[in-house]
Design a protein that fits this description.
By secondary structure, this protein is α/β, with parallel strands linked by helices. The protein has helices at residues 44-52, 76-92, 105-114, 130-135, 155-162, 179-190, 194-208, and strands at 5-8, 16-19, 31-33, 60-69, 97-102, 121-123, 141-145, 168-170. It contains seven helices and eight strands. Strands 1-2-3-4-5-6-7-8 form an eight-stranded parallel sheet.
Length: 214
Amino acid sequence: MNLLDIHTHSQGNPTGIFNGIPKKRENIQPFSIGLHPWYLKGDWEQEVFRLEQYLNNPNLFAVGECGFDLVKGPPPDLQMAAFKAQADLAKKYDLPLILHCVKGLHLLQKYLKTNVYPPFIIWHGFNLKSAVVENLHNFPVYFSFGEALFQNNANAKKCLKECPLDRVFFETDISEKNISAIYEQASLILGIPVYTLDRQVRENWMHISKRIFK
């Protein structure tokens, strides 16, 4: 079963969105590119211009990861400007945006409240309380769960139970676990068969994107 992996740093899964430009040209898979807040510099606008050159690539499935990080990143105003520029590109090219967000919920909320037509946003590696999901319910924000589902006291486990299934994705990110293990763990937590989760995740993807996994 080729399970959708919405965000991964590993290559080889034809239904996994690789974070970065794949180096194995003989085995091109879906990928995403963006300006991560950790690496934003003064010339970020030129980087956004270069990023746009890839957005017509048929294997480019998302913009990102990009977003907010107040633990490790430049000043918030710079992060907001770079995020908005990338969100505008995602909207222009009808692509979802993969969000990195650490201590930056208030910045995300500020963006959503001041931009009437944001792109679809997938908050990757989600591991916060379900109240965050509730607060973002009226916005086009989805939540991707990963390895934190294996941690006994992780917010992700409880939040997955309470998150609407039509807002859910799964990912491996930098984990050594494969995507099947992530789905199997989610299946145990929810009491739902893996094939049911697979069908739901695929429906969620079709709702936010016209890009088709082969």
